[in-house]
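Re: the 226-residue chain
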Amino acid sequence: MNRLIQFEPIKYILGETEFYGLRLKVNPAVLIPRPETEELVDWIIHDCNVQNPVILDIGTGSGCIPIALSKNLIGATIESWDISNEALMVARMNAEINKVNIDFIYADVLRLTHPAQKQEFDIIVSNPPYITESEQLLMLKNVLDYEPHVALFVPTADPLIFYRKIADIAITQLNSGGKLFFEINEQFGNETADLLSLKGFKNIVLRKDINGKNRMIKAEFDIPVI
């Protein structure tokens, strides 16, 4: 009760949460998974038409996205990146709890400290930091005072910084016809779609969550024939 009075999230107090029907450990090193991220996972599962898909998850946090995908996409091979070694420890623990095999790797996408070799991913998914620093004034204490800022915030002057960098990575890492999925800031849905279009992605779909907010986007990439 004392911790609740201090606005500490109950999921951190309990040390676990549920995501897409799975039990996950959480602590202040990782964001508490949100329902809209479940919607993103559900979209990917029902959209996937590739047998034994090869998937890259960028910014894994608790591992909720890759673990749920691994449990629901038969034969999936999944690699997950994060900048936080503490988050990677939580994600590995959650993968073990849920009996899935995922390759968790330290990577800083903004500084390009990630695998440089050509990969062949069918799907790349990311729920990157997307809340602008100016939005902090509107946030509740249970989020602002406890959840990791490195996983939440981006500069107000460059709110799409992670989407731009990850789109560039996707261009080199996706198979032809591969798909890129993002969770997004509801304020920048059209801007994110325009960014992807300018980088050559096709069949871009902006999707609303259960609350009617633009919260996820899908785009396809075809490697140009030379």
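The CA atoms of residues 160 and 192 lie 7 Å apart.
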